[in-house]
Amino acid sequence: MVPIAALWLPILLSTVIVFVASSILHMVLPLHKSDYRKLPDEDKVLDALRAAGVTPGRTYHFPHTTHQEMKSPEAVEKFKHGPVGLMNLMPSGAPAMGKFLGLWFGYCLLVSIFVAYLTGRTRLPGTYYLEVFRVAGTTAFMAYAVGQLPDSIWKGQTWGVTFKHFVDGLIYALLTGGTFAWLWPR
Fold it and tell me: What is the phi-psi region of residue 57: left when phi exceeds 0, alpha when psi lies from -120 to 50, beta otherwise?
């Protein structure tokens, strides 16, 4: 067993490496440019949303029904006629990129802490590179990639977008696993 305090360097370094890699994947490479599209007749839709009084911090499901109403002829017709979807709203104003990047960095740090905990509990000092890599990489993959699947299952995100996030997660997992294996206590 390796105490988590002995893994502070791979925790911090893997966090920074994943943060930089994600910045490259999302801001430099064109991989994610087609993930989000502009609404048709955006100004009209935004005016309608403002007039409807929608508020930030909520998820709206439409058409909205209860479980009991879902099979009623009226609800079935609304679903058939469409559109059907989920909508998340953020507060008005320019996106707070500093806040979002800070939260993403915190998430990467949290993932690395869990990777350190699980790998440290299952591998001894001096464990071979590949064994550490497997445990650390698999743990990171579960956090960065597998967690993307419910967005396509439940939220209607296209499988193509989820696949791209899955590839991102694989890259982050390989980088995290490699960092932990490289800096594993001898």
Answer: left
